[in-house]
Specification:
endopeptidase fold (from Nostoc punctiforme)
Length: 271
């Protein structure tokens, strides 16, 4: 205690207990408030403020729509793939069909060509057979005509007709003198040479050789001519029965024909 404390005039007045308690209470409240505020401020300064956005919860309808959309997308992709496969299959089928058609056309063309060749060959064979048959018939006819013709005792006409018969079916060639191809005057000249008669080479000269005879009195072995005497363009030999033998033309060759179909202009007799 101060040495002046016992002096009444120097003592500090006592504060009442109630005032002191009030002040203590106020002070404590303020300090408490400041402490809280400070703590709050410190906390606020230490931790950043974060805003949380709550996403909406998917409802049943929305989930269904999402699922349907996914299914639709998957189905569309499947349809696109299927269409692509169909398009590719169609293109491949079209290419194969075109290839098959080309092959079929080639086969048809080859078949048509083969059939045409076969038909041509068959026709040629038929014509050859007909020609062979015709020649055989003509030789038979000539043989009959030779036996019925009035031949002289010397048999010279028979030699002429026999030679002519053996040439039936030979070819006609302009300027031909045998042995397998003839023209009209070349054949006549060769035939009469078998009887020892030398005739001129041309039809014009042969039409005036020997003695002229009328067509109404001709005999086997007489020379027939077409055109004027000395100007004849064709000759043949009468074999009897209204027929004659000649080297007709390139299409017929050496044949027997009827005078009624091609009447002669005149005749001469050399045997």
């Amino acid at each position: 205690m101060s040495h002046t404390a016992h002096i009444p005039s120097h003592r500090k007045p006592r504060r009442s207990a109630s005032k002191m308690a009030l002040r203590a209470g106020v002070t404590g409240g303020v300090l408490s408030t400041l402490a809280v505020a400070g703590a709050s401020g410190a906390a606020s300064a230490a931790e950043p403020v974060t805003q949380t956005i709550e996403l909406p919860t998917l409802t049943t309808d929305l989930s269904s729509q999402v699922a349907q959309s996914a299914d639709a997308t998957q189905q569309a992709a499947a349809n696109y793939q299927l269409q692509a496969e169909r398009d590719e299959a169609f293109a491949n089928a079209a290419k194969q069909a075109k290839k098959d058609q080309a092959t079929a056309e080639k086969k048809a063309e080859a078949k048509k060509k083969a059939e045409a060749e076969a038909a041509a060959k068959a026709k040629a064979e038929r014509e050859a057979a007909q020609q062979a048959s015709s020649r055989s018939t003509e030789r038979t006819t000539l043989s009959t005509a030779s036996t019925t013709a009035a031949a002289p005792a010397s048999g010279s006409v028979g030699a002429v007709l026999s030679f002519l018969q053996s040439q039936v079916g030979d070819a006609y060639v302009m300027g031909g003198t045998g042995p397998n191809s003839w023209d009209c005057s070349g054949l006549v000249q060769a035939a009469f040479k078998q009887a020892g008669v030398d005739l001129p080479r041309t039809s014009q000269e042969q039409s005036t050789a020997g003695t002229a005879v009328s067509l109404s009195s001709i005999q086997a072995g007489d020379i027939l001519y077409w055109g004027g005497a000395g100007e004849a363009y064709h000759v043949g030999v009468y074999i009897g029965n209204g027929q004659y033998l000649d080297a007709a033309n390139p299409s017929k060759g050496v044949v027997i024909q009827d005078l009624s179909g091609y009447p002669a202009s005149g005749a001469v007799r050399v045997l």
